Amino acid sequence: MGVITVAELKPSISGKRSFRPSSSARHVTEWPISDVSSDLTIEIGTASFALHKFPLVSRSGRIRKLLLEAKDSNSNSNSNSKVSRLNLSSIPGGSQAFELAAKFCYGVNIEIAMSNVGMLRCAAHFLEMTEEYSDKNLESRTEAYLKDAVLTSIPNSISVLHHCETLVPFTEEINLVSRIINAIANNACKEQLTSGLSKLEHNFPSGGDAAEMSPDWWGKLLTKLNLDFFQRVLSAVKSKGLKQDLITRILINYAQNSLQLGLVTRDPQLVTQLDSHKKQRVTVETISGLLPTQSRKSTVPMAFLSSLLKSAISTSASTSCRSDLERRIGLQLDQAILEDILIPANAHGNSHSHSPLYDTDSVLRIFSIFLNLDEDDDDHENDEMMYDFDSPGSPKQSSIIKVSKLLDNYLAEVALDSNMTPSKLIALAELLPDHARMVYDGLYRAVDIFLKVHPNMKDSERYRLCKTIDCQKLSQEACSHAAQNERLPVQMAVQVLYFEQIRLRNAMNGVGSHNQLLFGSMNGHRAGSGAGSGCISPRDNYASVRRENRELKLEVARMRMRLTDLEKDHVSMKQELVKSHPANRLFKSFTKKLSRLNALFRIRDTKPKPNSDSRFLFQKRRRHSVS
């Protein structure tokens, strides 16, 4: 503001001095003209005010006390100075606040507004401008404005609270911040109640009225507050009973504004970068602590939790903060998509170039939380379950199937990282229980990608990784690919061929109940009937049995065609493997068994068809074998 001189002493014709505003202050002040020279100088920082004692002493108790102390010190030192000097640099609001207070003491009508009421209230308290020294003093004037115009309105309260951020700790001394926050909380709860009642009365209006009645309209105004005031406001509205979904919306709004602005900052100075990094970390930890109570039916969106966890990892937030976010994501993991769990590794913690791209440890903990919670909840939910846990139609099983597909997609994505270690991929692949994966095609795809990206893997690691795949639950397409996949260990290729032959034999013999899920991957309708057969009573009607019989015949016909192709592939594979691998005895015995199997198929083709009664008994027996 510079040096502000309220009055400038100039000699007049009569020898007296007139009291006029200086040229530097005329554009902001219109002080009354006075013939009395200044006898008091107030210094505030680099600004100084040449004033008079009487108007200030008549309204300010602090200035009165300071002048009395100065008078006593001057009398003791025998000083004859007529002009007193006071330094009030510690006044809240600085020279701007004092200038308005001084005008008020001179009787100038000042305008109290949202932008200066907090500053004037603190200045009045600092200068002790109370009713004890003058009626309708500045303190009572500002209090009346606060009660009438600020505390009754949420937007005005938030605006004044925002201007109070630079006035701490003076606002705490007069309890101004707490009063404004309590007013916001009370008015927000009233707004929530009024909004609910108006919706009932107007039958949920649409269009512009609905937008005006949005219950969280005031929450967007909170983004202008600093983190400390925002935290106090949100804690207050939570204690008053504001709905969880409204609190969640407010948190998301604030996080998107504060964290987004921080993340795009690119300051070349290291100190500034460290300060920004620290602010982001504090913001993430604070917002995480303000989230609603953890539950599977939480109102917090999965995308927001994922973004918050990614920010927590990138800013090196506390372990408790990360653990809390991981648990929240684990509770709602069946609602996640691949992007939600693709969590980048902390670039600050991993400075070397061979570090993985993704934080698989965090994802491993998240999936473990989901699976452990399912186990813990079994005892509490048995009375409410109307079907078995392993039934594909049960909610818990359907959630696990979703999570298994999500994990397989995640494995396929992280397998592309050349810095991913086999041990971490194996740990993730072995995480799910056996009943979680109906088909292992997704896991096989991830393993194949990993083997392709990591061609120099040890044979022991390659074998251990492939052991995570259940060859009996591979689809026909996956089996065909695995049988010709040179990246797989020989043991697994043989195992795939072996189970493929068993599947064909069972299909030809009609024993397909144990491997219905495998056939179901080739025929969607078949998968549905096989999955549900465990819940059907033995008294099913004859029509369903005939329908399954027709489906089985179609499968057998397809298997016969497939058998011809496999014989050709087997002969060529046998020749190659015998030359390149010492395990000749195994393939010789395998060839003999295959020949016997072919002979058995030919014999079965020449046999007469059974009559309808025997066929019906066979089908009925097959139905009872499904479990």
Overall description:
The chain is mainly alpha-helical. The protein is 60% helix and 4% strand. It is built from 27 helices and five strands. The chain has helices at residues 53-57, 61-77, 94-105, 117-127, 138-150, 154-163, 170-173, 176-202, 208-212, 227-239, 244-263, 270-289, 302-314, 319-331, 338-341, 360-381, 395-414, 422-429, 441-453, 459-466, 476-483, 490-509, 516-520, 524-532, 542-580, 584-606, 612-625; strands at residues 8-11, 17-20, 40-44, 47-51, 84-87. The strands form two sheets. A three-stranded mixed beta sheet has the order 4-3-5, covered by helices on one side. It has a two-stranded antiparallel sheet with strand order 1-2. A hairpin with a 2-residue loop joins strand 3 (40-44) and strand 4 (47-51). Helix 4 runs antiparallel to helix 5 (138-150), helix 17 (395-414) runs parallel beside helix 19 (441-453) and helix 22 (490-509) packs parallel to helix 26 (584-606).
Tell me the fraction of residues in β-strands, as a range: under 5%
Rg, rounded, reads: 40 Å
Low-confidence stretches: 1-30, 204-211, 261-271, 379-393, 511-540, 606-627
Structure class = mainly alpha
The major beta sheet can be summarized as: 3 strands, mixed
Layout of helices and strands, plus pairs?
Layout lengths: L7 E4 L5 E4 L19 E5 L2 E5 L1 H5 L3 H17 L6 E4 L6 H12 L11 H11 L10 H13 L3 H10 L6 H4 L2 H27 L5 H5 L14 H13 L4 H20 L6 H20 L12 H13 L4 H13 L6 H4 L18 H22 L13 H20 L7 H8 L11 H13 L5 H8 L9 H8 L6 H20 L6 H5 L3 H9 L9 H39 L3 H23 L5 H14 L2
Parallel strand pairs: 3-5
Antiparallel strand pairs: 1-2, 3-4
Helix pairs in contact: 3-4, 4-5, 6-8, 8-10, 11-12, 13-14, 14-16, 16-17, 17-19, 18-20, 21-22, 22-25, 22-26
